[in-house]
Amino acid sequence: MNEVEWYAVAPPCSHEEFLAAVRVYARDAVTHHSLSVAVSDLEWSVSTRAKRRAGVLRYRDDTPLEIRLAWRLFENQGWHAVASTVRHELAHAHLVAEHGDASHGPRFQRLADRLNTATHCQRFTPPEWWVVCTDCEHRLPRYRESRLVRNPGEYACGRCGGRLTVHTAD
Ligand SMILES: [Zn+2]
Ligand SMILES: [Zn+2]
């Protein structure tokens, strides 16, 4: 399997570009780890609303239907975190298809270990603040009260030179 970086996309990119990279990565992960998952039969989607949950597998009976990934995870933590979440959700899909098992039980622990991903459902930390450009609406997540967060007026948008404001994350 290629290195995770090989597939990397970075914000800003469209949901379509993101999901295209995710599918290519997922297909290789499935082949490499011999998982019983048909990547192209799954629906892949982005949740722009999920605030803490990194990813979720939707399934009916023993059939995996959809893997949904949190857009904020990508924006806040980048491709590596997404790749790990994809492996986590693929592990769920495999065990649902093979054993009707959607738990984080012993089977999951073993498989997650092999796929080098988290053994519990992944949560991500939302930023405390967003620094937002009033001109181009570029958003930067901030986890600590830095000088930029305290005095946004001393800085300009790195993209367009516009004025920056700070919002507390909801
Ligand atoms: Zn899980
Ligand atoms: Zn700007």
Task: Summarize it.
The chain is of the alpha+beta class.
Major sheet description: 3 strands, mixed
Radius of gyration: 18 Å
Strands of the biggest beta sheet: in what spatial order?
Answer: 1-3-2
Number of alpha- plus pi-helical segments? 4
CATH architecture of the largest domain: 2-Layer Sandwich
Structural class category: alpha+beta
Low confidence ranges: none
Characterization of this structure:
The protein is α+β, with helices and mostly antiparallel strands and 170 residues long. Helices cover 35% and strands 19% of the residues. A 3-stranded mixed β-sheet has the order 1-3-2. The chain has a 3-stranded antiparallel β-sheet with strand order 5-4-6. The longest helix has 29 residues, at 71-99. One zinc ion binds next to loops.
Main attributes of the structure:
alpha+beta, Zincin-like, 3-stranded mixed beta sheet, 3-stranded antiparallel beta sheet, binds zinc ion, 170 residues
Secondary structure layout:
Layout lengths: L14 H18 L10 E5 L7 E6 L2 E8 H29 L6 H9 L14 E5 L5 E4 L4 H4 L13 E5 L2
Parallel strand pairs: 1-3
Antiparallel strand pairs: 2-3, 4-5, 4-6
Helix pairs in contact: 1-2, 2-3
